[in-house]
Amino acid sequence: MIQFKRLDHILVSIPEQATAAARQFYSEILGLREIPGNHPGGAIWFEIADIQLHLREETGGNWSLRHPAFEVDNLDEARQELARKGVEISYSSVIEGRDRFFIRDPFGNRIEFIQYE
Length: 117
What we know:
With 117 residues, the chain is of the alpha/beta class. The protein has a single domain (4-116), classed as 2,3-Dihydroxybiphenyl 1,2-Dioxygenase, domain 1, CATH 3.10.180.10. 18% of the residues lie in helices and 39% in strands. The protein is built from two helices and seven strands. A seven-stranded mixed beta sheet has the order 2-3-4-1-5-7-6, with helices on one face. The chain starts with a strand and ends with a strand. This is VOC family protein. InterPro entries: Glyas_Bleomycin-R_OHBP_Dase, Glyas_Fos-R_dOase_dom, VOC_core. Residues 6-116 form the VOC domain.
């Protein structure tokens, strides 16, 4: 059984060439603290209480990268269980300090499972 711990982050898609406008809105208008760093895909990250909001430019299409990320306590077991049930596992860029993988639900929605080191 997957041992869910909490919602870790949500990735929200923004139009191409909109990163500067998104940074201004989320930091200056909403007052969120930006998490500095060179994040995957040129994303910008913000803190909201104990979760993160990730914003990333994306063109339209059926296989969006937007997703919720669920922190779990047993990532390897979760990966094995999902694979055993026939769920396709995919991977993305490496982020220091965490291990992760992705799945898609039957409707094409992307879901990330993550465990911090």
